[in-house]
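Appendix B, Record 12. Input sequence as logged:
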Amino acid sequence: MDLQELPGFYRQLDSRYRIVNGDLDSATYTNVESNFTYSAGFARHRWFHYKEGFSPVLVERLLDECRLDRDSVVCDPFCGAGTTLAVAKARGMRSYGFEVNPFAAFITRVKTAGYTPGDMEEFQGLLAGLGEVDPVAPRPLPENEYLRRIFAPEMLTVQLNLRAHLNSLPEGRARELLYFAWLCTLEDCSLYRKAGNGLKKKLHPPAYEEGGAFSFALELVRRKAASMLEDYSPEEGPLPELYNDSATTLKERLPRDSVDLVLFSPPYANCFDYTKIYYLELWFGGFVASAGDQKAIRMRSLRSHCHATWPERYTGFRLPPLHNELLPLLRQQPLWTKRIPDMLSGYFADMEEVLRQVYGALREGGRCAIVVSNSAYAGIVVPTDAFLAEIAERLGFRVREIEVQRLIITSSQQYQKTQHLRRYLRESIVKLEK
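Logged structural output:
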């Protein structure tokens, strides 16, 4: 296959499935259910802006579409900030979640926990106590040089003192809520912001007068806490069973034929390393204490980027349209790293293993919905949704449809090269049935 044959290659892949909204012709970031920005108006979901997540509106729609009720069981093997689990809990459903990133798992645990009025009263008392922190007390600087540069010197001292105070509080739900509120404000206090595949220095850093860093930081924590208190309502649904572990451990935790819906959005095959994107919260929040800890998270994660060298796994995996057609063509192109083809092969091998375990966990007639985005390298679109549909079919799933949510916006380097293929640069929901 050569570059001129790509449109026909993608048409042939799509022809095997029912493609819904396949005639979209404009790309957008907003006003779609798969965009987490849609969550800003929803209690609890708005607590942390987890931009990789989807919205509760999407979860609600899919639960209704699958006609699930309080007796149904839901699983999200890449639960991120816990949107699926929070919606399931509010509906009184049992749910399971898996997440390798310990910071994201912490977000989920806080959002889905059951809090009593007493917990919230204690939370307010601990919040008031933050005002008594000595913001200029000398503290040892982090050994991590990059972490020392993330905050301005005055702000760094303030944050170290806030962290020390929070770590001194007795364990409990109230302390966890306050620690979470503080974590939510770190990026706004820092000199860096999340951008693409990591952190980027802000053009407009936080503004406060000399000696004003503590007041600035404290006000942000108080605002975040106020929104959490405003959102409080006692919820009686069952607490999710949450595992800070890989999606490939489903078979160890879930009984076979026990789940009605598996709904998830895996990391996209776009070379984003989430240990870099959430570097600030992981390190400053104490979820990792060394490069080895950070590497351990990478080693348990999906092979969706090129920033680690994984040991061989699932070596028998082969998908003909990927290995016989797309990867040979991709290897002929000028790529920013020649590891991309191997990364893609590893990504789909890992996803096959996840889907194999999902199939085993689902009841007969159970559904699976995968929110995923296609990607592009050197002007070649990687049709992730169609490839996952083909993998699912050979595992025994029936592909109900591929619902296109939106066309995606590529980098400026990719834009011109992929203009004639724009309909395949899309974010979709792959809907499966056992």
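The chain has a mean pLDDT of 91.
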